[in-house]
Amino acid sequence: MASVLEIELFGNCNLKCVMCAQQFPDKRQRAISFEEFRAIFELYKPESLDYITLHGSGEVMLSPIFGRVLDFIPDGLPIRFLTNGTQIAKQKEHLLNNADKIEAIDISIDACTPQTYKRIRGGVLSDTLESISTISSNHLYKNKIRLNFTYHKHNYKEIPLLASLASSIQVSRVGIWPLVDSAQYLADEWAVSYNDRSADEKFNYRESLVSCNDPLLLKYLAQLQLACQSHGVDIVLPEFYNIKNEMMHLKPSDCPVVEYNRIYYSTGEAKHCCLQTKPVFNWFSEGAKRFEAVDRHHQIVTELKEDHVPSECEHSGCPYIANFDHIPSSDPSEITFQSRTKST
Ligand SMILES: C[S@@+](CC[C@H](N)C(=O)[O-])C[C@H]1O[C@@H](n2cnc3c(N)ncnc32)[C@H](O)[C@@H]1O
Ligand code: SF4
């Protein structure tokens, strides 16, 4: 039974974060039409869903149908989404009109100084903070906004500054996430220019990963925890920080995601999880349909229950299969990772 439906409204973005797949835009990334949104949405009964998300891997607030979709989603179905925050001021009216339905907005910030923000995301930090402030100070959005920070070697020393940054724009929640440690990103040389063009050096994905035992990381996280306490800010820390060794024992049959998550990307790819390396089916070429109507979906559920790695999850960096590469997949995929190379 699905309980989270994710429909990517818009596959492109106005920023160019050095660690994001938007560095290599896929020509199929596009805006979905309202009719396409509706065809997918109507496959699922709103009462069977815990919530709906709208972001996928692009910037949802650039979608031409963003406001229409918010208006269309019925009362009682909570809406959540991830955004880079740059378009909040422009979409303020839609956001205020639909504030009752919007349960959570996660805003990726990934830097706490203008220099780092420019360098790794390609935007102007003060503009983004001003944009966020247009709703974060409104009582309708109290406790609904979280500032997210995806860390790597080139921004993690700014982690402790996140509490005061959030507090300065009246945001009371922050979250810290690691870069995806996935073969999909690492198989090819991922070395891209920074956005400030001030240095010849490049962002190298593989070399930017930070180990969960990195003493500096642990120090920065501890400093952030203290800063959050003094600013009255809630914090979500990376799973390893809380669970530590228990993470090592996760296995494919522990994956809860295939049971509840349904993602429809604007490219047509339908996946259970953003970390899957191959789609389960294509809703664009095959027509909009429920996952439950697809044989492969049921096979994937069975394979995971039997602690096999489905071909759709091969090489994924998720903790359920990361330690199980020795288990042969039932249907080996032919992933070449070429779509994520520099030349695309
Ligand atoms: C792909 S973005 C899409 C939504 C929106 N544009 C945003 O930036 O929030 C979703 C989240 O993924 C994070 N992200 C991007 N590339 C990542 C990577 N390689 N590993 C982990 N998180 C990543 C971003 O920082 C952001 O928090
Ligand atoms: S803002 Fe989001 S989608 Fe855009 S490049 Fe950055 S992480 Fe990727």
Task: Write out key terms for the chains shown.
344 residues; alpha/beta; TIM Barrel; two-stranded antiparallel ribbon; 13 helices; 12 strands; binds S-adenosylmethionine
Helix and strand topology:
Elements: E1 4-7, H1 34-41, E2 51-53, H2 66-72, E3 79-83, H3 92-97, E4 102-108, H4 114-121, H5 125-136, E5 145-151, H6 162-168, E6 173-178, H7 183-186, E7 191-193, E8 202-204, H8 205-208, H9 215-231, E9 234-236, H10 239-243, H11 257-260, E10 261-264, E11 269-271, E12 281-282, H12 283-286, H13 295-305
Parallel strand pairs: 1-2, 1-10, 2-3, 3-4, 4-5, 5-6, 6-9
Antiparallel strand pairs: 7-8, 10-11, 11-12
Helix pairs in contact: 6-9
The protein binds S-adenosylmethionine and iron/sulfur cluster.
In short:
This protein has helices spanning 34-41, 66-72, 92-97, 114-121, 125-136, 162-168, 183-186, 205-208, 215-231, 239-243, 257-260, 283-286, 295-305, and strands spanning 4-7, 51-53, 79-83, 102-108, 145-151, 173-178, 191-193, 202-204, 234-236, 261-264, 269-271, 281-282. It is α/β, with parallel strands linked by helices. It has a single domain (4-249), classed as Alpha-Beta Barrel (TIM Barrel), CATH 3.20.20.
